[in-house]
Amino acid sequence: MKNVKTIALATALAATAAISAPTFAADRGDDIHAGDYNWMQMNYMYAVDELPGGSSHDYLELEFGGRSGVVDLYGYLDIFNPSERPDSDKSGSPKMFLKFAPRFSIDAMTGWDLSTGPIQEVYISTLFNWGGGDKDLYGEDAGDVNNASIGIGADVMVPWLGKVSMNLYKYYEIQAKAWNGYQFSMNWFKPFYNFDNGSFISYQGYLDYQFASDNDYSTTQASSGGVMFNGIYWHSDQFAVGYGLKAFSDVYLIKDSDGFQSTGFAHYFSATYKF
């Protein structure tokens, strides 16, 4: 999740502006780099009963993001089984997975104020997922996970949660060279309890849901499915620890079955160092 100082400040400013005015845009004046920032953190994670398949394993995650001019960026690199334990569920599997999600502000590129009601800023949104899957996903030795999405996004003020990123993508399988349905994604970060020493507890998470997908490729493929992560985290300036409950439904468009479970719940434990 994003750097706590940046998000807490942005959330507070957006909430104040939403109360005092009917709309609040990302007004950067003549300098589109006003308010630029960047952040990075390292998370050590342990997953219990992760779906599909019910895998329990550890991984190291380098998470990063920020804003520079027209570009709003989020991404992370996961390194599975970093100590190469032979008893890990990830032993012998692909080692790394990268999610890369740059968004390009239409407001900043055009100088238009597209804010209206709860909508704060509008983007051209992109999303790329590379690696960490099955090299035989598209056929024997065809390659690992490799997909891309493009669509429209917005920062939206939601009651209690504050500013929420929402994006609707058209989903493209790079390996298969085919468009295949859509994906709706959203993420949030809500500090809700503050301690006297400046640390706080937050509710943070995300939703990724694929739909209208072609399920003619295989009898085991679903036409819709996704995940929702719900995390409770304690944050200080330098550290964070947390627990997350993730709900899965036909995740990665794999139909849930007795032979291979893709619907259910998994638990995640995290310790974070912030740079």
Walk me through what this model shows.
There is one protein chain. The chain has 275 residues and is mainly beta. The chain contains two helices and twelve strands. A twelve-stranded antiparallel barrel has the order 1-2-3-4-5-6-7-8-9-10-11-12. The protein is globular and about 55 Å long.
Biggest pleated-sheet summary: 12 strands, antiparallel, barrel
Q: Give Rg in angstroms.
A: 19 Å
How many beta strands in the DSSP annotation?
Answer: 12
Annotation field: number of helices: 2
How large a portion of the residues is in β-strands, by DSSP E? over 45%
- Unreliable sequence segments: 1-25
Instruction: Give the overall silhouette.
Output: globular
Structural class: mainly beta
Query: Strands across the major sheet, in which order?
Result: 1-2-3-4-5-6-7-8-9-10-11-12
Please tell me the overall pLDDT: 86
Q: Tell me the series of helices and strands, N- to C-terminal.
A: HEEEEHEEEEEEEE
Secondary structure elements and pairings:
Layout: H1 4-20, E1 37-50, E2 55-68, E3 71-80, E4 96-105, H2 106-110, E5 119-131, E6 146-158, E7 162-173, E8 178-194, E9 200-211, E10 225-235, E11 239-249, E12 264-274
Characteristics:
single chain; 275 residues; mainly beta; twelve-stranded antiparallel barrel; disordered N terminus
